[in-house]
Here is the input.
Amino acid sequence: MAFALAAAAPASARERAASVDALFGDPTMPMLVVAHRACHNPAPRHGMANSVPENSLDGIARCIRLGVDVAEVDVRRSRDGYLVLMHDETVDRTTDGHGKVAELSLADIRKLHTRENKGGSDVPLTVRRVPLLDEALAAAKGRIVLNLDVQAGLYADTVAAVRRAKQENGVIIKQPAGMGSPVLADIPPFDGIPFMPILTGDGDLPDVAARQLNGIRRPVAFELPRMDAALLPTLATLARRSSVRLWANSLWEGFVGGMGGDVDALRDPRAVWGRMRAAGISIVQTDEPEALLAFLER
Here is the structure.
């Protein structure tokens, strides 16, 4: 029988220092909640029945109000070099505009209106505009950690923006790492900012993780790819011994084979999020942060 979600506790029940050191430094702390593209879905338990655009300042503000630990947002660069929050290569899905972000000036992009939630041509428009990364960093500072999902290889630009904002302890940067990758946390531009490898490969994922631990600087976590659940015990043991957290995605059908995703978790959170927690996963990225918070509070 599906586990009935309790009403979520006020955000103050999960208040923590909004820094990477505070959240990720102690792997024994409770499971961390990451909102995918910020908190765009309705949050009815907190009186927010409407949705807001993904990758928006409204979404970051909603995450803060809910007590979410980390808001994940996507970064792209305009034709004239400005960093904006946008997942897709084009603005078509999430705004009333058309064309590639990299081929539009900031002035072009700022004229556009964003669409509600995950967007789409049949989804209503809002009065909101596409935000700059600088605006997102300012909105999050001291209030919530941002996970910057950097698109199109814009790592140097993104890290420079983080340093200008003096947010070195307020963000996480990530990049895929495979068996042929160097120890990424030790090399520029990742060596001065909290870094998380996204493990890539097949059966060699534990070896990839061990290699990324072999440097001077330790990664703050390992993000798991779509993977066979049979590898999870070995990875969990390695992470626990190294005091590094494991991050998994319950997005869509779920990334860890057989554990299910957000849709399943809404029906039976114990069977998905509870099983992940029991298996050693201590960070979950979801499109349903309010429901995950309610489960963890229960």
About this structure: The chain is about 30% helix and 15% strand. The two ends are 17 Å apart (CA to CA). The first strand starts at residue 32 and ends at 35. Strands lie at 32-35, 70-77, 83-85, 145-150, 171-177, 195-199, 221-223, 245-249, 283-286.
